Amino acid sequence: MPNIRLSKYGIVLNFGITVISNMLVGFFIGYYLDRWTFNNKLLLVIFVLLGTASGLYNGFKYLLKEAEKYDKFDKKDDHHDRGDGNN
Amino acid sequence: MKLKLSRRAKIALMIFVGIYIAVGVVNVTFLSRENMSEAFKNIANRWVVKLPFGKGILNRINPFTLIMTWTIMIVIIVAAAKFRKFRLVPDRKQSAIESLLQYVYEVVEGSIPDERFVRPTFYIACTLFVFVAFSNVLGGAVPGVSLSVNSQGDVEKVILFSDLWFSPTADINTNASLAVFVLIISHAFAIKAKGFKAWLKAWFEPNPIMFPMNVVGELAKPISHSLRLFGNVAGGAMLVYMLSYMVKYLFMPVVLWGFFGLFIGLVQALVFTVLAVAYISAALS
Q1: Using CA of residue B164, residue B168, residue B173, residue B178, what is the dihedral sign?
Q2: 20 to 30 A Cα–Cα from B102, which one of A50, B157, B176, B269?
Q3: Which of B108, B224, B271, B274 has the highest number of chain A CBs within 10 A, making it the mutation to test binding with A?
Q4: pLDDT tens digits, one per residue of B213-267
Q5: Which keywords fit this entry according to its UniProt record (chain A) (predicted)?
Q6: Which residues make beta-bridge pairs with B50?
Q7: Structural domain of residue B54, as residue ranges?
Q8: What is the spatial distance between Cα A20 and Cα B217, in angstroms, rounded to a whole number?
Q9: Which of A1, A3, A63 is most worth mutating to test chain B (most B CB atoms within 10 A of its CB)?
Q10: How far apart are alpha carbons B174 and B131 in whole angstroms?
Q11: Could you give the CA distance from residue A5 to residue B146 in angstroms, rounded to a whole number?
Q12: Dihedral sign of CA atoms A66, A72, A74, A77 in order
């Protein structure tokens, strides 16, 4: 992967953006569903909580995926460059 | 890196610096000084035209976005038609294009698991990268035509060559349509690759309880994808304008143009492309 070094500093930013955008989507779905149905703000609360949970779930999924990629990359790096295995 | 300049280039550079300083001194002494609140009054306003149909946010457009998008598309198509004939021994421009396309191809090849979809994804990624990079650089580093618009959305005056071009990626609608297009295409590829049933099953993984979260997470992808590019490009254009106003007689604006226009613009275009490829590969795997 050529872009792995470049994306090193974007991981934290990507995590934050993922969480916030999920919360936003939850908020908007909840707001419009609420206005369309009962109009008592219950669905809004439910969907904001759902959006937050979804944001954390997807964010951590993303972090785990990146960590896996880095493990693979580091192993290859150790093998080729240093060969000492810095544990 | 050590620069080696010929005698002629040194003399030309000295003449350029002299003219630059002279123009700066003339500007400082003679030019009318616009008030700061006067200069930044219309900085974030957009030209708005109401359509005869639709309602709410759906019945207004920004015609300048349309004009700039079509102009950029025509320029790219004309340039592509010019480079249509590839030679076996490449000249300078051809090898630049080849190395760029090869870089994008390597990114695509490294992350798409299914071999049948490498070529189509490569076409999509290249199209996105060329369009977004071109419009980002145009909106961040090249002085050109832009509009001064009051808060009602009417054009007050046309600004010629004292501000940057209006970039179509500084409008959220362009970015959102590109991101939604990537979302639709990733799911179309997923249906084609895995079959309809397996695609439907992927929504209920790892547990049927997770279905709403998967839906919200999937809908959040185009939002984060588009807002990131929009924030960087629109904010970069505004920052260049404001900081250039504050240091307008010095060398600083050139550096700022280079940083916000070329560097941030190209990095964001690359990030947009890589994210599009990552979304498609996540839908495929």
Answers
A1: negative
A2: B176
A3: B224
A4: 888 888 888 998 898 899 888 888 888 778 777 766 665 566 767 777 788 888 8
A5: Membrane, Transmembrane, Transmembrane helix
A6: B60
A7: 36-284
A8: 11
A9: A3
A10: 11
A11: 37
A12: negative
